[in-house]
UniProtKB/TrEMBL annotation:
It comes from the Eukaryota. Belongs to the nucleoplasmin family. The lineage of its organism: Eukaryota, Metazoa, Ecdysozoa, Arthropoda, Hexapoda. This is Nucleoplasmin-like protein. One of its GO terms (molecular function) is chromatin binding. InterPro entries: Nucleoplasmin (IPR004301), Nucleoplasmin_core_dom (IPR024057), Nucleoplasmin_core_dom_sf (IPR036824). It comes from Papilio machaon.
Length: 187
């Protein structure tokens, strides 16, 4: 359903900023997602120089600018990021240092918007079918509950098939068992 492509960009003093915006170039509507896996400091980076990579993207209500990697020769040459950007545009900027800093990840190119609409229709149909299945399940469950109640009533009968309760006292008397002495004293 989606295609996955390698994504890489190098930021340096000569190329300090790069914007990922596939929607501006797209000829047909598809969903896009960018995953940045790691930032690597290039082998010709200057010693004792901090290299700061900042990202600018949209959050819930506004745009946000925030550093995502700080790299230094001899201390940190790479950083595992695993950052997902579901919305374009995303701008990466080398705000400090001369780099080079390599950003590596994947560009996920999703299905056509029409395919998503078809999926929504299919999900609605599946939900309708499940609701129908649920009502059938409830009917079957009610039948089983009714059978369970009948079975419980049958279990209340004693061994000879006579129901328990008032009649069981009479059956005890019929078997030759005497009633309690207190009851005989009152009579």
């Amino acid at each position: 359903m989606s295609d996955e492509y390698f994504y890489g960009v190098t930021l340096s003093s000569s190329h300090q900023s790069e914007t990922w915006d596939p929607e501006a170039k797209a000829e047909y509507p598809r969903s896009n997602k960018l995953l940045i896996r790691q930032a690597l400091l290039g082998p010709d980076a200057k010693p004792d120089e901090l290299n700061v990579v900042q990202v600018e993207t949209m959050c819930l209500q506004d745009s946000i600018k925030i550093p995502v990697a700080i790299l230094k020769v001899g201390e940190t040459r790479h950083a595992r990021l695993d950052i997902e950007f579901p919305d374009a545009p995303v701008t990466f900027t080398l705000t400090q240092g001369s780099g080079p800093v390599h950003l590596i990840g994947q560009h996920l190119l999703g299905a056509l918007v029409e395919e998503f609409e078809d999926m929504d229709e299919m999900e609605e149909e599946m939900l309708d079918e499940e609701e129908g299945d649920d009502s059938q399940f409830k009917e079957d469950e009610n039948k089983r509950k009714g059978a369970g109640k009948r079975k419980a009533n049958e279990d209340e009968d004693d061994e000879e098939g006579e129901p328990k309760g008032k009649k069981s006292k009479m059956s005890n008397n019929a078997k030759g068992k005497a009633t309690s002495p207190k009851k005989n004293a009152k009579k």
